[in-house]
Amino acid sequence: MVKPLANENEPSGKTHLTQGFDKRLNTIAAAGSDLLYGGLKGIEKESLRIASDGSLSTHEHPVALGSALTNRYITTDFSEALLEFVTPPHPTTWEVLNRICDIHQFTYSQLDDEMLWSASMPCQIPDDDKIPLARYGTSNVGRMKTIYRRGLGYRYGRQMQTIAGVHFNYSLPEKFWKTYQDMVGDDADTDTFRSEQYLGMIRNFRRMGWLVLYLFGASPALCKSFAGTGASRLKSLDGETYFERYGTSLRMSDLGYNNQNQSRINISLNSLDEYVRDLSEVIATPEPSYEKIGVKVDGRYRQLNANLLQIENEYYSPVRPKRVANTGERPTAALRRGGIEYVEIRSLDINLFDPCGINQNTMRFTEAFLIYCLLEDSPKLAPEELGELVRNHADTATRGRDPDLRLSRAGKLISVTDWASEIIDRVQAVATQLDRHDKNDSYVEAVRWMRKLVDEPDATPSARIIAELEQANIGFSRFALAMSASHRDYFASITPLNEAAAEEFRHEVQVSLERQKRIEATDVIGLDEYLERYFADNGSR
Q: 3-class DSSP state for residue 50?
């Protein structure tokens, strides 16, 4: 059994939290300059393909980008028109940024007259029946992926599924874990220790992740074509734009989530066993409103099942514990097998002001923030605290820059500025340690920039977007379209993709198409049996 760190189960008051964090960070600092350096970082960035007039692309996924089922770098999410770019994990933010830039450049070279939409909130979005589901071929696994998306459309509406974001994946360096385990005097096996510590990080991210929405939220406005999802309750900026004056990330608000079933789902983050148990349970729990949709109607699947969640990925959360799964292995089974391998941060909006949708300052701050969340005391989450942090998250998404906003911490109100300043002080201490290896101040400078955003809310991406719309007297759709065009021109103007990188992507395109054919050729059972076997592997012991 994992031994709790000091004060783990005590109330989360400021004083003992600070003492616990300071002690751990000082001990790490004394152990050497590279203990925190080199944690693996990766990006998954979604982008809608659009026509030159800003409308959603009606074309199939370009064959020139390979198989959406098996390409390691370029796939699709909900729709044929919703691309997803995936970087391998790298130890430095510069490598990650270079790779995501390369993927953009290669993709643009294959898009002809189409562009990538620059924003998280969708473009001139058509009615649900005009939004094409992503298709992955005739194999059982490919058909399952499309059925899952069809089910999402029935449950939540297809428009909501076209909202795009950036996911940041992170794991601490391997050398950190043995040293840290010795520091805290824990004698559990390494996988168990690592999983418990990552869960502590995740709990603290849930407590303080509202700060990510404040700093990086870039969706305070949206096009009025995004209809039927509760958007009409927002304020009108002009004839084509809804907005929230102090909003930061309408993407991460309850906008579009008009189905209330997700709000009933409470997945424990207090242990890996509880997390897997709760997630497995909701995947097996029938939901009457989904039963009315039907599962297989007239020989065609409408959804994978009629349960609260079809599969694990349907659980919407700003952060997830992850492990790379084997072929055909469910995420819960993978976690049971080897524990938590990395964490996935899902609350980053696409930054309209960056051609790649994210920059190094964002990645550096997020990495340092996650390390802070790990080193800080992380008591178990009680139901009443969970409700508190959910409200903080929602309030920050819709009015995070409101000077009158007060968040709730341990039942007491605190201003966004005061709480953010306390957090940033701790994150800066982590950044100082991260900078020791390269003997520069790149991480500290990233944190200093975020401190400026706290002191000057008008400098945040969300505030800049509202200011641009009002000063130019332009609607959101036209503004985002202009930004999309400028990003296209940027990738055309920079140094061309070097031949080695271009050949790597071309090779992956060809190999991915061959992989898909092999998968389709080796299916030996029907889809019904495949799904039955898949759901029989429920991740339980």
A: strand
* CATH 3.30.590.20 given to domain 14-536: yes
φ, ψ of residue 101 to 5 degrees: the values are: -65, -45
**Per-residue pLDDT for the chain (541 aa), expressed as one digit of tens each?**
233 333 333 333 333 334 589 999 999 999 887 899 999 999 999 999 999 999 999 999 999 999 999 999 999 999 999 999 999 999 999 999 999 999 999 999 999 899 999 999 998 889 999 999 999 999 999 999 999 999 999 999 999 999 999 999 999 999 999 999 999 899 899 999 999 999 999 999 999 999 999 999 999 999 998 865 567 789 999 999 999 999 999 999 987 554 566 778 899 999 999 999 999 999 999 999 999 999 999 999 999 999 999 999 999 999 999 999 998 899 999 999 999 999 999 999 999 999 999 999 999 999 999 999 999 999 999 988 999 999 999 999 999 999 999 999 999 999 999 999 999 999 999 999 999 988 899 999 999 999 999 999 999 999 999 999 999 999 999 999 999 999 999 999 999 999 999 999 999 999 999 999 999 999 999 999 999 999 986 544 4
CA-wise closest residue to 368 among 75, 11, 41: 41
What residue segments make up the domains of the chain, in order of their start? 14-536
Neighbours of 372 (CB within 10 A): 24
DSSP 156-218: H-TTGGG---EEEEEE--HHHHHHHHHHHT--S-HHHHHHHHHHHHHHHHHHHTHHHHHHH--
Spatial distance between the Cα atoms of 319 and 200, rounded to a whole number of angstroms: 12
Task: Tell me which residue of 387, 392, 398, 411 sits closest to 263, measured CA to CA.
Answer: 387
Strand, helix or coil for residue 330: coil
Phi, psi of 407 (to 5 degrees): -95, 170
Instruction: Write the single-letter amino acid at 209.
Output: G
Amino acid code (one letter) for 287: E
How far, in Å, are 156, 164, 310, 524 from residue 142 at the CA level? 22, 22, 16, 14
Q: Determine phi and psi for 51, rounding to 5 degrees.
A: -75, 170
How many Cβ atoms sit within 10 Å of the Cβ of residue 412? Answer: 8
- Helices (H) and strands (E) counted in the chain, each on its own, are 17, 14
- CB proximity list for 207: less than 8 A, separation 6 or greater: 12, 385, 389
- State whether residue 239 is helix, strand or coil: coil
CA of residue 411 relative to chain centroid, distance: 28
Prediction pTM value? 0.94
Do 317 and 266 touch, CB atoms closer than 8 A? Answer: no
Check: CB of residue 223 under 8 Å from CB of residue 125.
yes
86 DSSP β-pair partners = 44
Two tokens, residue 149: 């998306």
Give CA torsion, residues 319, 321, 327, 330, to 10 deg. Answer: -90
